[in-house]
């Protein structure tokens, strides 16, 4: 088979990854290639050449002065994104060598134009309902969808019936580590991921905390997180995969603190694969990933203060978890090989006569 993977066009599929979606696409492409399946990828320029996949290129948007001066001109980034996906779908419609198009983007056009392609299209739902994708799916009955968790499938249930294929992590790359004397938090530095809550939990519990991830929301970092940094609570930056693995595997526990309905919680699975137990706020699909013997979820309370207090109360039991048992839990529940096998089975179903 030859599979076309459509990713978000804002970030390349390359380490250090901008987020879980980019990481997922990279590992999926790599895993498919290792199974002898050819892969074509559409993503932002600069995707990892080591993947050895064909990259679907698009022409940059060229606007005349007249178009730019139109009083109804939307943000140029929105125009560029839409035209990029229009070019990709038009290009795919002319190709006979691709068997399945796997849409992992957050754009409506691959959904709206799915029926214009000769190939079957499957869209993985990586987020809660969005105002762009939801109407496109309503207008495209029969479009095949998958969801990264039962929680996400449930959120979209009135729009589409999605097959649940949980994300997974590379158990070789995320190997067992010895633990350490500090906590860790990793992910995009944005309000909905709420690393400031992790800082408050660590400070209240008397633990050191290392925070890692891209600064995706500078204002949030400056106003909410930076004031909480200290000698014991530090920001390590946006780390390369090997550096992040070392940090996570040498930590006593991982804090995951979403203030939105977390679709899956890839950082939790990565942590457990290292043997590092997880303390998580139970939002969205995260509660499906983080459960004993790999971690503990606490319910979000009415206020940040109550949530922090509940997390601090649970922290000792999390840190005390056996690291080998945590790793075994990740092996049984969060394997990348199992994820890729399920997608390959789905692709075969879609191309079956």
TrEMBL record:
<feature type="domain" description="Glycosyl transferase family 1">
    <location>
        <begin position="184"/>
        <end position="299"/>
    </location>
</feature>
<feature type="domain" description="Glycosyltransferase subfamily 4-like N-terminal">
    <location>
        <begin position="19"/>
        <end position="173"/>
    </location>
</feature>
<dbReference type="Pfam" id="PF13439">
    <property type="entry name" value="Glyco_transf_4"/>
</dbReference>
<dbReference type="InterPro" id="IPR001296">
    <property type="entry name" value="Glyco_trans_1"/>
</dbReference>
<keyword id="KW-0328">Glycosyltransferase</keyword>
<protein>
    <submittedName>
        <fullName>Glycosyltransferase family 4 protein</fullName>
    </submittedName>
</protein>
<keyword id="KW-0808">Transferase</keyword>
<dbReference type="InterPro" id="IPR028098">
    <property type="entry name" value="Glyco_trans_4-like_N"/>
</dbReference>
<dbReference type="Pfam" id="PF00534">
    <property type="entry name" value="Glycos_transf_1"/>
</dbReference>
């Amino acid at each position: 088979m030859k599979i076309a993977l459509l990713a978000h066009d804002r970030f390349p599929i390359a380490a250090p990854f901008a987020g879980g979606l980019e990481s997922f696409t990279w590992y999926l492409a790599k895993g498919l290639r290792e199974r002898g399946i050819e892969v074509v990828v559409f993503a932002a320029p600069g995707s990892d050449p080591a993947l050895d996949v064909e990259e679907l290129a698009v022409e940059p948007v060229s606007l005349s002065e007249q178009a730019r001066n139109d009083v109804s001109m939307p943000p140029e980034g929105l125009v560029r994104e839409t035209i990029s996906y229009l070019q990709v779908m038009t290009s795919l419609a002319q190709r006979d060598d691709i068997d399945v198009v796997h849409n992992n983007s957050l754009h409506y056009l691959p959904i709206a134009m799915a029926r214009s392609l000769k190939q079957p299209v499957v869209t993985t739902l990586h987020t809660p309902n969005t105002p762009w994708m939801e109407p496109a799916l309503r207008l495209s009955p029969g479009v095949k969808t998958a969801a990264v968790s039962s929680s996400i499938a449930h959120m979209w249930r009135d729009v589409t019936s999605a097959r649940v294929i949980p994300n997974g992590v590379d158990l070789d790359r995320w190997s067992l580590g010895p633990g350490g004397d500090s906590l860790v938090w990793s992910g995009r530095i944005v309000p909905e991921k709420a690393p400031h809550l992790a800082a408050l939990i660590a400070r209240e519990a008397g633990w050191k905390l290392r925070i890692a991830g891209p600064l995706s929301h500078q204002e949030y970092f400056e106003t909410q997180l930076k004031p909480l940094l200290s000698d014991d609570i530090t920001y390590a930056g946006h780390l390369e995969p090997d550096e992040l693995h070392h940090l996570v595997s040498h930590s006593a526990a991982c804090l995951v603190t979403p203030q939105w309905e977390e679709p899956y919680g890839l950082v939790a699975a990565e942590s457990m694969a290292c043997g590092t137990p997880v303390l998580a706020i139970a939002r969205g699909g995260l509660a499906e990933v983080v459960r004993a013997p790999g971690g503990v979820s606490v319910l979000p309370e009415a206020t940040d203060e109550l949530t922090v207090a509940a997390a601090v109360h649970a922290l000792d039991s999390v840190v005390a978890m056996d690291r080998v048992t945590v790793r075994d839990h990740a092996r049984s529940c969060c394997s990348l090989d199992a994820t890729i096998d399920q997608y390959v089975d789905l692709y075969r179903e879609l191309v079956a006569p």
